[in-house]
Design brief:
152 residues; mainly alpha; Four Helix Bundle (Hemerythrin (Met), subunit A); two-stranded antiparallel ribbon
């Protein structure tokens, strides 16, 4: 299973991210490419104390939904709702200069792979507590999902 615990998987995501352009059109959804970059950066930070996010974890989401999302055989569907704190049209970080925002996201991806306790908070807003391995799996899947959104 692909994960940010694997250097090859991380390198693949970083290569794909480097091909994203500010005017890249989405295949689905309403986010622009600059908003998506900031959304991913905010999503990485929600696993730390740096970006508090409201929690909606229920027993069903912490068990069935989490297992399906992280380990199930299907790709994440388009159009999933996100928490308002990481939605760039509500309370998420607004895009700045695109190249700088992409560089900041790439730096976070690298930090996740090199800092074993990057996700200090260890509580996902939907899935509840996650192990380091599960956070790294989620992080890979989340970035992959949005890069596919832009055809990468």
């Amino acid at each position: 299973m692909k994960s940010l615990a694997d250097r090859r998987d991380t390198a693949d995501l970083l290569d794909r991210l480097a091909r994203l352009r500010p005017d890249s059109p989405p295949r689905w959804g309403r986010m622009t490419a600059p908003q998506m970059v900031c959304h991913l950066r905010d999503a990485f930070l929600m696993g730390t104390a740096a970006k508090p996010v409201s929690h909606v974890a229920t027993l069903y989401r912490r068990t069935v939904v989490k297992w399906l999302a992280l380990y199930g055989p299907l790709r994440w569907p388009a159009g999933l709702a996100t928490r308002p704190e990481i939605d760039q049209t509500i309370a998420g970080t607004r895009p700045g200069e695109f190249t700088s925002d992409v560089a900041a996201l790439a730096a976070l991806i690298v930090r996740v792979t090199s800092e074993p306790d990057f996700f200090r908070e260890r509580r996902h807003p939907i899935f509840g507590p996650l192990s380091d391995a599960s956070w790294r799996r989620w992080a890979y899947l989340h970035v992959d999902h949005h890069l596919r959104q832009y055809g990468l």
